[in-house]
Every structure is written in C-alpha cells, then in structure tokens.
Amino acid sequence: MKVEIYSDIACPWCFIGKRRFDRALEAFAGAEDVEVVYRPFQLVPDAPMEPSPHRAWLEERYGPQSRAMDDRVAAIGKGEGIDYDFDAAQHVNTVHGHRLLWLAEHEYGPKTQADLKERLLAAHFSEGIDVADFAALTEIAVAAGMDRARVEAFLPSDEGRAETASELEHARSIGVSSVPTFVFEGKYAVQGAQETETFLQALEQIKQMQGK
Questions:
Q1: What does the mean pLDDT of the chain come to?
Q2: Which domains does the chain have, with CATH numbers?
Q3: Which of 43, 68, 144, 188 is 20 to 30 Å from 151 at the Cα level?
Q4: Contact at 8 Å (CB) between 40 and 164?
C-alpha cells in the first residue's frame, strides 16, 4: 500500500497530522507493507527567502485572532508530544526544504525522508530555525543520515528544482488545496490532521479492499 502525504514544512497541522498518522501506522497490522512518501505543498508559495517573525506575519494576515489560532494549535500539539514555539518560529519560504525531501526520497528512501520531514517540522516549529538557510538545512539533513558533501553541493545547485516544481503543480492538478492531505493508493484521500483512529480505520479499509 502506498500513502502519499501532501504537506508543508510551515504547516502546523501537518506536524500534528504526521504524529497521528505515525501512531496509526504503529498500530496497523501490515505496516511493513505500507510505503509512506511525503509530497510537497506550499501554503505561501511567495513567502520570502529572508526570515521574519512568524507572529508578526500571522497577525498581519489574520489580525488579532492570530494568537488564539496559535494557542489552539499549541494546546493540541502538546497532546501529540509537540512543543510549538511560535514566538521563535520564522516565516520563510520552504521550497529548499521540499527539494531536500525530494533528494532524500530518491537517494535514501522513504524512511530517511520521513525522518528528515520530522526534523524539518521540529526545526521550524519548535527550534526557531530558518528552514531556508542552507547551512541549517545541511545540519538537519546530516542528522537524518544524509551525506554532508552531497547536501552541500545539492542545495545551491539547480538540482531538484524542476522536479519539486513539477510535484507542486501535480498537487494542484489533482485538487489538493489544503494540507495535510493523505492519498491512499493514488485514489482515496483523507484531508486534515484527523485523529489516529481515523487514520487507522483508513489503513484497515484500504487493506481490506486490496484483499490482503
């Protein structure tokens, strides 16, 4: 079974959705036959490459209710073992993080990609790291088991740019408009950071439909 997860590094609900799906997978009898791949999506594709405070950007976009939005996410995240630090978080473009995830999938495989995704989300939301900075991205990639020299050569190059752009366009073409979106076997979609039980039910239903 293949599960493609469309998400953004700068999406707080994507972090919660990942944790919940990971728990569902741990409880799923047949997890060893599930391939999980992360696909790119950008909530703010025109975000600048230079970071600015997340709080200021969100307030400019949503007004006074922005802090309550963050507080709600932080409270839910705490229940999933996530420590959001929205005061430290930086608003910045995520395209290079997505390129790095593309490289991880193609040269290291889904497990390394999933590990990198977790580390990128934590870096952005819990550690206040600029996830557009090549030096920071290199350290995150190395911690996920990727080769330092390869990553250092990759990030400033054009490699993976066209492929990432193509995947971003594909997400739009199949109707992905909000994230996280979980696509099972290229056919069945579950949208949002659903409860773990919902993801587990989806996995079991797809397995049953496959007759396995």
A1: 97
A2: 2-209 (3.40.30.10)
A3: 43
A4: yes
| Cα–Cα distance, 57 to 69 (Å, whole number) | 13
Pairing of strands 52-53, 90-91: antiparallel
Question: Percentage of the chain surpassing pLDDT 90?
Answer: 98
Residue that is written with structure tokens 């025109």 in the block: 46
Query: In this predicted structure, what is the pLDDT of residue 210?
Result: 87
Q: Facing residues of 183 across strands?
A: 4, 189
**Which tens digits make up the pLDDT trace of 77-100?**
999 999 999 999 999 999 999 999
- Looking at residue 196, its amino acid is T
**Long-range Cβ contact pairs of 70-77 (< 8 A, separation 24 or more):** 70/12, 73/12, 73/13, 73/16, 76/16, 77/12, 77/15, 77/16
